[in-house]
Amino acid sequence: MKRREFLKTSIAASAAILSTTTLSAGETRQPIDNRKVSDMAFPQKRPLITYSDRPPLLESPRSTFARGITQNDEFFVRWHLPDIPTHIDTDSYTIKIDGLVEQDLEISLKELKNDFEQVEVTAVLQCGGNSRSAFTPIPGGIQWGSGAMGCAKWKGVRLSDLLNRAGLKKDAHWIGFNGLEKAAYYKTPNFVRELELTELDDHVIVAYQMNGEDLPYLNGFPLRLVLPGYYSDSWVKMLSNITVTDKYKSLFFMDMAYRVPDNKCECETPEHHFKPTKPITNMNVKSVIGYPENGMKVYHNSHVVVRGVAFDDGHGIREVLVSVDGGKTWDKAELKQENGRYAYTEFRYAYKPADYGKVTFMTKAVNRLGDEQPFAKDIGWNHGGYKYNGIDEVTVEVV
Ligand SMILES: Nc1nc2c(c(=O)[nH]1)N[C@H]1C(S)=C(S)[C@@H](COP(=O)(O)O)O[C@H]1N2
Ligand SMILES: [Mo]
Questions:
Q1: Which range is the signal sequence, renumbered to this chain (predicted)?
Q2: For ligand 1, what atom is nearest to the CA of residue 231?
Q3: Measured from the CA of 75, which atom of ligand 1 is nearest?
Q4: I want to staple 57 with a disulfide (CB 3.0 to 4.6 A). Which of 52, 71, 156, 326 is the partner?
């Protein structure tokens, strides 16, 4: 069945249930973009859009995306378990490596910083559920707008160097990563991720610094996994254990969450969830406008510079196109690419509003493979609300 038909049937089937609302099931639109930052700030953070304080769930406002590097104090925060350790003893903290290795290792922070080659990578960290509020009906989970993402310069050591020091045994195939939450609350499902050895290249690092400073506590102090190009569910924070195994261990977070339908459109209907599913891995191409913002007023005949960021999974951004006529015609934005292929590409587009009234800016990024962002309405629905990458839109008023 083609997607359009698929949608029609699903809309017809659910029309009765939804008669009290104007939303159509299985459709997608622009993510919610009217939330204000909170009055309250968490330690090391400026006030952000706050969904919960236990666990801390914080979203960066749109204005953050006018710049290519996200500051540490404006970087979004997501934790799954309500109880995160509130104290870390940096002198005794170690990262343990065990399982199918020649030699179990326990590496202190000091050893990590002194005994291994130090490397840096600038990379985008984006939750797979970023922009989830674009999906209708809205899937369960945090109703993120577009701010569950950020781009930082990460410094640390290569995961492969750690694994080589331990020495992998012949049957080594899977690697499990565990955050420190486990130690304190062992009865809740741990936040553990598993990756296949073949997925891990030299770009994967165990990082202790973000933008030249220690990782902020809420972003995983003192150590986190950095997987450039991958959605951030696997970027385990407060990383304390790495376990090498021969078999996939089947864990709650890997089996239930962060998966999409294993079909070409990665889509399904609210009535019939598609099986089988697959884990989300590589990020699709996306752009988000940082300036101007929805509802702003700009002066007639003034010089408006639309600014924002674009990224993909590391293939690199070829161009960012801007439309002011609803997507009929597109113009190229200027690009600035200084931080490598995993980082944000900054774009800017100068515009002189010649007419009064509302004007909508749309941005569409295209990567080096030729993949481009679809219109919001053409994105397939999935029940987890993952991987939304619709053409971004901001509407301002010319006065
Ligand atoms: N230990 C631990 N690591 C974790 C998580 C978690 O709940 N616990 N959540 C993951 C998810 S789903 C996301 S989106 C990112 C969020 O990273 P941030 O809080 O630094 O923005 O951390 C990932 N790593
Ligand atoms: Mo996430």
A1: 1-25
A2: 14
A3: 21
A4: 52
Q: In this predicted model, what pLDDT tens digit does every residue of 151-203 receive, in sequence order?
A: 999 999 999 999 999 999 999 999 988 888 754 444 455 677 888 888 888 89
The verdict on the CB of residue 178 being under 6 Å from ligand 1 is no
Strand ordering across the sheet containing 56-59: 49-53, 56-59, 77-78
Cβ 376 vs Cβ 390: under 8 Å: yes
Structural domains for the chain = 49-279 (3.90.420.10), 286-398 (2.60.40.650)
Nearest atom within ligand 1 for CA of residue 80: 7
Cβ neighbors of 110 (< 8 A, separation 6 or more) are none
Pocket flag, ligand 1, residue 386 (CB < 6 Å): no
Least reliable range by pLDDT among 176-185, 299-308, 335-344:
176-185
Region for residue 99 given its phi and psi (left: phi exceeds 0; alpha: psi -120 to 50; beta: otherwise): left
Distance 235 CA to ligand 1 centre (A): 6
Dist CA 312 CA 235 (whole Å): 17
DSSP H stretches of helix in 64-122: 109-114
Beta bridge partners of residue 134, listed in sequence order: none
CB atoms < 10 A from the CB of 355, how many?
10
Q: What is the 237 CA–ligand 1 centroid distance (Å)?
A: 6
Give the separation between CA 204 and CA 225, rounded to whole angstroms: 7
| Alpha helices (H) along 70-229 | 109-114, 159-166, 181-184
